[in-house]
Design brief:
alpha/beta; 19 helices; 11 strands
């Protein structure tokens, strides 16, 4: 057998681009929201088979028995690896039908039906695959085009570390494109610069557990994994990072597939991602042994939960607002203070949280009085454009008593020369450099101010506090510019009032 040729970044990108061009010809697919998930599960099956081959070789060399995750004739090598393998209607039937004639000539379950039925009572990766494919469909209707896509994917070597690393980078770009396309359907993309800043400030250490309870496609988890992997120096370190460090949960089948693919491509071999709604469990049932060192997340905001979910929280803390329920969950999940160590979190919240009342106010009171809400970083307007015009903030807090008696607020200004952000011109990590420099040597200035816990209590925990260190300046704009600005502001207010109303009063 000929030795596999290593593929460079450009060649790998060309393979992916070629596969996507082929998919554009298929009438069953509508846009990247169909194409990218389809390409993902095809690549996922190739990846599983490549990983199985490596595991089989290792088992043979050690004299042990290996049981494959996917059995014949459903393995990639059985039906996809040969360029002139099954195609056309035969391929579509094998993939789509509940019962069909399989590539080995026998009658049995179709490919997707087999994958959806995989189960091992929660004991192995079979359950993971079963959950992943539970909501998966083949939307391609042309079996010849599907064969062409499969042949392209077959050129990728998932048993090559170099190619995995390259593909991980390319895959992140694909995910961003998909999230861009889904922005108007509630899927918000957290800019990479914001994610990187949050991870840097939290600074996960070897041996610490990192959780994202609403992980989506895994932006926070991949960044945390990369941060830890760069710090790992020994075989022991790497084993800890691989097995005990990265934890997530996702409620939707598609992101559940995407996050696992994303983490694997970034080097995490066995992602610990739970399928299901994080909020479905009674918060009182979370024991001390289930608490984690770190939570990094941008929980869904603007959503509403049903009565059954609300009932999992104390009667006086029940609300339909998803983000407020997640905050309660996060507080509960952080490791308790034992005199030395404690859990810590970085959480994105919308502006409405700062001045929200009801349940929202009670959560803020708990953060101030029972925990150490040490920093609120106020992001510039438009960071989450075009997904939402709502201004956002990052809460940094710890599960320990507040040693400083108050909270620091830091307002990140929009960069000089920038008027707004967009998906093509997002916020850059360099725009956080002043905040990073300030972090370890805090003092009040034109961007930062300190508010005591007593003052926050006196304000009924209204966090919408303007920086007292900013000197008011005369508005030098002409009347036309002022009127235009007022009109734009009014339009923005109309857009965000609906979201704010969901949060105020909790």
């Amino acid at each position: 057998m000929a030795e596999k040729q290593k593929i460079n970044a450009q060649q790998l990108k060309n393979i992916i681009d070629s596969a996507r061009k082929i998919m554009r010809k298929d009438k069953g697919l509508n846009g990247d929201l169909d194409r990218l998930p389809m390409l993902t599960w095809i690549m996922f099956l190739k990846l599983l088979d490549d990983m199985d081959k490596v595991a089989e070789t290792e088992a043979m060399l050690s004299g042990s028995k290996y049981v494959p995750v996917i059995e014949a004739p459903y393995r990639w090598r059985d039906w996809a690896s040969e360029e002139d393998g099954i195609t056309g209607d035969e391929l579509i039937s094998f993939v789509n039908l509940e019962k069909t004639i399989r590539p080995d000539g026998t009658e049995g379950l179709g490919l997707l039906a087999y994958l959806k039925a995989l189960s091992d009572d929660g004991k192995s990766r079979k359950d993971v695959i079963g959950n992943i494919f539970s909501g998966t469909q083949n939307r391609m209707i042309n079996g010849y085009l599907l064969r062409d896509v499969i042949n392209k994917v077959n050129e990728i070597h998932f048993d090559s570390t170099e190619e995995l690393n390259l593909l991980g980078t390319i895959y992140e770009t694909m995910l961003k494109e998909m999230r861009d396309a889904a922005g108007d359907s509630g899927e918000f993309y957290t800019p990479r610069a914001v994610v990187k800043f949050m991870v840097k400030m939290i600074d996960p250490q070897i041996g610490e557990s990192v959780l994202d309870p609403a992980c989506g496609t895994g932006g926070f988890l991949t960044e945390a994994y990369t941060h830890l992997a760069e710090a790992g120096k020994t075989v022991k370190d790497l084993k800890i990072i691989q097995t005990k460090s990265i934890i997530g949960q996702e409620a939707k089948p598609l992101p559940y597939l995407l996050v696992q693919m994303n983490l694997i491509l970034h080097g995490l071999e066995y992602p610990q991602i739970t399928f299901g709604n994080t909020l479905e469990r009674k918060i009182s049932e979370i024991g001390d042994n289930e608490r984690v060192d770190i939570v990094l997340t941008n929980p869904p905001f603007g959503g509403e939960e049903e009565d059954g979910i609300k009932a999992n929280f104390p009667p006086d803390m029940q609300t339909a607002e998803t983000a407020l329920l997640f905050l309660q969950y996060i507080i509960r999940k952080l490791k308790k203070y034992n005199g030395k160590t404690y859990g810590r979190a970085a959480v994105v919240v919308p502006d409405g949280f700062l001045f929200g009342t009801g349940v929202c106010e009670k959560i803020k009171e708990s953060l101030v009085q029972n925990m150490n809400l040490h920093t609120v970083v106020r992001l510039p307007f438009g960071v989450f454009e075009p997904y939402t015009p709502i201004r956002s903030n990052i809460l940094f807090f710890e599960n320990r008593p507040n040693p400083n008696g108050g909270t620091w607020f830091y307002e990140v200004p929009i960069a000089d020369g920038r008027k707004k952000y967009s998906k093509t011109k997002p916020i850059l990590f360099s725009e956080f450099s002043d905040c990073i420099s300030w972090w370890e040597n805090r003092k009040e200035d034109e961007h930062a101010w300190f508010v005591s816990s007593e003052d926050l209590k006196a304000r009924n925990y209204d966090f919408a506090i303007k920086n007292p260190n900013v000197i008011k300046q005369m508005d030098e704009r002409n009347l036309d510019e002022i009127y235009a600005s007022m009109r734009d502001s009014s339009n923005e207010i109309v857009k965000i009032l609906g979201e704010i109303n969901k949060i105020i009063g909790g």
